[in-house]
Amino acid sequence: MAVAVVGEPEPFRTDFASPHYARVRLVGAGLYATSVLGVALAAAMWWWASESRHEVAALQENVARVQQQASRLRDELRGVGFSPDDSAAVDALAKRVAALNQILEAKAFSWTGLLNDLEAAVPRKVSVSSIRPDLKTKTLTLDGVALTLQDVTALMTALQESGRFADVFLQQQKSTEDNRTEFTIQCTYRGRA
Hints:
Helix content: 55-70%
CATH architecture of the largest domain: 2-Layer Sandwich
Order of helices and strands: HHHEEHEE
Low-confidence stretches: none
Strand content: 15-25%
Structural class: alpha+beta
CATH class of the largest domain: Alpha Beta
Distance between the termini: 115 Å
Mean pLDDT: 84
Radius of gyration: 42 Å
CATH topology of the largest domain: Gyrase A, domain 2
CATH superfamily of the largest domain: General secretion pathway protein M, EpsM
């Protein structure tokens, strides 16, 4: 069977105002925007992966350095006869270090400075009978006797205003048989700057 073309072929015609053409343009624009967004996301993911690789490399270098230092420290400890893997020995060493730190803190504490600062702040009608420092918290507990409660208040005010003591607090006070006032004051000693 043979097909015969009769007449001239029709020329190509399109109607740019047709709804079909508008939909095709809209779909094309959407595909173009999706492509651009995909390329931007791919670039962002590549940059993020590159940054993550740099961070991972830096962290791995730090881990390797710390492991080398730990290994070197273990070798040095074994060299002096201490086993870092023995938890009882580690606990005993920690207790000894804490005790040595307390001794160093006690040696560094200036009793002369404290007594001079107290002498400058204690009024004439007040007698301090005991001083109990807590070197860890830098708090002092002062026990004493005053002629009146107003003298205790004057002591507390003088301590606070001296600048050497802070958080001055009257823990307790009571009257004695001879009408004097026994007191216990707690405060923080700042010392000399």
